[in-house]
Amino acid sequence: MASVHILVLAAGASSRMRGADKLLQRVAGQPLLRHVASIAKATGSEVWVTLPADAKARQTALTGLGVRVVPVPDATLGMSRSLYHGITAIRAKAGPDDGVMILPADMPDFTAEALGTLIARFQAEPNLIFRGATPDGQFGHPALFPGEIWPELAVVTGDQGGKTVLERHKDKVRIVALPGRMALIDLDTPEDWAAWQAGDP
After folding, report:
1. pLDDT tens column, 142-188
2. Which of 118, 129, 126 lies closest to 171, judged by CA?
3. Which of 9-18, 55-64, 158-167 reaches the highest mean pLDDT?
4. Which of 130, 144, 150, 171 is deepest in the core (most CB within 10 A)?
5. pTM for the whole thing?
6. In CATH, 4-197 is 1.20.1630.10
């Protein structure tokens, strides 16, 4: 059975938080980054986390979790560099039939069960791409890609994630409805945090 590697993208500058680091804000009594990485680990998958070279506080937040940290020395060039360094590191360890789930680090509502649903779908059909969505069909995160697609993820540029790759392979994409709005909710600004903490989606 194909294995799935979860790549947590956590090398962003948190520039819209006006001085605070969104990935160190508290969720369920721990930094958001640790919260998300713990959920990923609870699936039983190997978890890889991209971090900028100088992110000591973020690295400390991951202490003891058993995740693989992937340094991104050129993180200022955008999300694409996290994909490049992450995919490069995973390919050196992965099997030929493995998949990679791209999981943003600033999305607090995912559960291990929801991520496990995508993993199970991929393991049943490992040549397809699986993308999280809301129950009413709004596309979101995460996305899970088969190995044959990884080289395309590694060459996206700027601040692009996997969106262009998903568009290029529409015929392979299968949408997986996840509970609530977990596939959409990300926390980029103080206002996002305030609304989320108040229970306002």
Report:
1. 999 999 999 999 998 877 778 899 999 999 999 999 999 999 998 88
2. 129
3. 55-64
4. 144
5. 0.94
6. no
Query: CB-based contacts of 47: which residues, under 8 Å, 6+ apart?
Result: 5, 6, 8, 37, 40, 41, 65, 66, 67, 68
The number of beta carbons lying within 10 Å of the beta carbon of residue 113 is 12
Domain ranges of the chain: 4-197
Residues 102, 6: Cα–Cα separation, whole Å: 6
Q: Is 199 left (phi over 0), alpha (psi -120 to 50) or beta?
A: left
Identify the CA nearest to 41 among candidates 63, 58, 66, 71: 66
Whether 139 contacts 96, CB under 8 Å:
no
Q: What is the mean pLDDT of the chain?
A: 92
